[in-house]
Amino acid sequence: MATNEAKKKPNAKGSKKKEVKKETGLGLSFKKDENFGEWYSQVVVSAEMIEYYDISGCYIIRPWAWKIWKLMKEFFEKEIDKMEIEDCSFPLFVSPAALQRETDHIEGFAPEVAWVTKSGESDLEIPIAIRPTSETVMYPYFPKWIRGHRDLPLKLNQWNNVVRWEFSNPTPFIRSREFHWQEGHTAFASKEEADVEVLAILELYRRIYEEYLAIPVVKGKKSEMEKFAGGLYTTSVEAFIPNTGRGIQGATSHCLGQNFANMFDIKFEDEKGNKRMVWQNSWGYSTRTIGVMVMVHGDDKGLVVPPKVASSQVVVVPVPYKDADTQAILDACSDAVKTLTEAGLRAKADLRDNYSPGWKYSHWEMKGVPLRIEIGPKDLANNQVRAVRRDNFKKVDIPMASLAEQVKDMLDDIQKSLFDSAKEKRDACIEKVATWDQFIEALGKKKMILAPWCDEEEVEKDVKTRTKGEMGAAKTLCSPLDQPDIPSGTLCFASGKPAKKWSYWGRSY
């Protein structure tokens, strides 16, 4: 469906009227609270975010969604530029020899690795893997570039696509065979430098979620079971979907320690002439972010996009009643778009003459445009516009003279309101427990559970085993970096042993 301005302007007052489509059927047939999975699948297609492809688990990301990714990318690139991290590009293909250099790491990805085995009709002598991530692609070349301490730190980032083939229940954005992301790979002379970067990048991921996508997240550390395969430790930002009672890993920042340095012989000569292994990090966030945004903010009318990442922040719709001066209304719409665009806002007018205003309202509501502006004969006479918010559908009349200023304020308020509402819903789902019985009760209520834990892997495995069911087992989501106090004598909710930390638990995507 075209959404650009019509090439031919609608007929002015007194001209022969064109047939106006009054199609219905724009609404969703599933409700978010009643059938979340079907609702989500319908929203991402109806809002023109994705199109299904003829290979299962692969999706076409349409412009409406890609712009969201682009706006997040612009923010992130500016921030990592300040950290003197440079963009690069490594090949899509990985040799089996490179993959096998790091056994522990590749074991975590082995079932998901896709292999190229033929070239035309000929079998390849040696199969070639398609990258599931790029550690084994990049690190064989680090020893060529790192010789002495003056070559450090090495800070690289690439924007690319990766393939992870084996899984069940593909979900657009959330779980797909091919996805887009950025992956940073850095090397330092000391662990202290690596530790600082891990948290600096994690803070950028928090900002992407909270400041751009208006989604509250917890910054935390993953358990030994859940950390990145082959890494020293993993930090993450964790979101929560109240409708499903599931946590979702938003982005990760890993300290890899010296494991990969040992495997790929990445050494440097320090100031005293001694040979030492580098300390490495890797970190990434993906197009999964877009799916989390849909899940958190969407409603029964469709998508709700926070203004900071909206492809169009404002859509202007003419409302020409019978006998109105249609051309004057269209000109006012164009003037409004010009005013808003010159003020730095992303605005467009829907001047299509073959759709009714009501149909356009539903169309742009489905696509989640934060603010709709309507201009009809009365608005024209009063030199004003009517603004309708997407988040709460409140209406307000705005004088044309202060249009840009008031629209900016409204968009800022929408951004804040979306975050505040999401945080209120998320916080209502957090339950603090002390015992196993309380944990099971909270899990049954689809809560995000904060519990004291002894931090033992066997206990974590036991919790997974004891909670396994149709909805999936509970697991650790993360241990928050901002740890609440643990009173003396506090016991682990699952083992009864002395508790060492607080951790979030729950089912997850």
Automatic annotation (TrEMBL):
GO terms for biological process: prolyl-tRNA aminoacylation. It is an enzyme of class 6 (ligase). GO terms for cellular component: aminoacyl-tRNA synthetase multienzyme complex; cytoplasm. Gene3D superfamilies: Anticodon-binding domain, Bira Bifunctional Protein, Domain 2, C-terminal domain of ProRS. Residues 67-306 form the Aminoacyl-transfer RNA synthetases class-II family profile domain. Residues 1-20 are annotated as: Disordered. CDD domains: ProRS_anticodon_zinc (cd00862), ProRS_core_arch_euk (cd00778). GO terms for molecular function: ATP binding; proline-tRNA ligase activity. SMART domains: ProRS-C_1 (SM00946). Its EC number is 6.1.1.15. PROSITE patterns: AA_TRNA_LIGASE_II. It catalyses: tRNA(Pro) + L-proline + ATP = L-prolyl-tRNA(Pro) + AMP + diphosphate. Keywords: Aminoacyl-tRNA synthetase, ATP-binding, Ligase, Nucleotide-binding, Protein biosynthesis. InterPro entries: aa-tRNA-synt_IIb, aa-tRNA-synth_II, aa-tRNA-synth_II/BPL/LPL, Anticodon-bd, Anticodon-bd_dom_sf, Pro-tRNA-ligase_IIa, Pro-tRNA-ligase_IIa_arc-type, Pro-tRNA_ligase_II_C. Residues 9-19 have a biased composition (Basic residues). PANTHER family: BIFUNCTIONAL GLUTAMATE_PROLINE--TRNA LIGASE (PTHR43382:SF2), PROLYL-TRNA SYNTHETASE (PTHR43382). NCBIfam families: proS_fam_I. HAMAP family: Pro_tRNA_synth_type3. This is proline--tRNA ligase. It comes from Daucus carota subsp. sativus.
